[in-house]
Amino acid sequence: MRPLRYSINVTLDGCCHHEAGIHPDEESMRYWTAEMERADALLFGRVTYEMMESAWRQPATGTWPDWMGEWEIPFAETIDRAKKYVVSSSLSGVDWNAELVRGDLGQAVQRLKQEPGEGLFVGGVTLPLALADLGLIDEYVFLVQPVLAGHGPTLLAGLRERIQLELVDRHEFRSGAVAVRYRPTRVAA
């Protein structure tokens, strides 16, 4: 069974909004590229899918936009070519190497996890909350930024039950950010 990994940037005060002062640098982009390369497919909700597509889909010209630095291109290429699954009841169709996921979320994600492979990568805010509530996330990867946002959506706000985690990896960046990787601890019955 391939693991489902939830990965996101977060501020020290728990904000996970992409405009909360969490600006990528070369080192963090290399990290996120490697994280995405560990996955066979990406799993997004509608909002995250549309946001990522608008930023990282290769233009029809085949030339990356001028705003993109050379150090961002490996990330862009990785996300652009990745297989994507989009959980949405409002979209009628998707492209960008994507497939819609409909119906019972828990059953659909369990089917995806049972396929052979290295893993699934999920990002965003709303979908990961639902997946965490269903106990489907096998690994949590937080890139904690040295920023206090003071506003915005917070990480897993509204989680129904506490999830105990164990630290399995930690990486410090020159910027002061810290990537932490956790797995849920399984409580013996």
UniProtKB/TrEMBL annotation:
Task: List the source organism.
Answer: Dactylosporangium sucinum
Per its UniProt record, what Pfam families does this chain match?
RibD_C (PF01872)
Tell me what this protein is called.
Answer: Deaminase reductase
Please report the stretch or stretches of sequence annotated as the Bacterial bifunctional deaminase-reductase C-terminal domain: 6-176
Q: Which GO terms describe its molecular function?
A: 5-amino-6-(5-phosphoribosylamino)uracil reductase activity
GO biological process, any: riboflavin biosynthetic process
Instruction: Spell out the PANTHER family in the cross-references.
Output: BIFUNCTIONAL DEAMINASE-REDUCTASE DOMAIN PROTEIN, DIHYDROFOLATE REDUCTASE FAMILY PROTEIN (AFU_ORTHOLOGUE AFUA_8G06820)
Question: Hey, what's the signal peptide range on this chain?
Answer: none
Record-linked Gene3D superfamilies? Dihydrofolate Reductase, subunit A
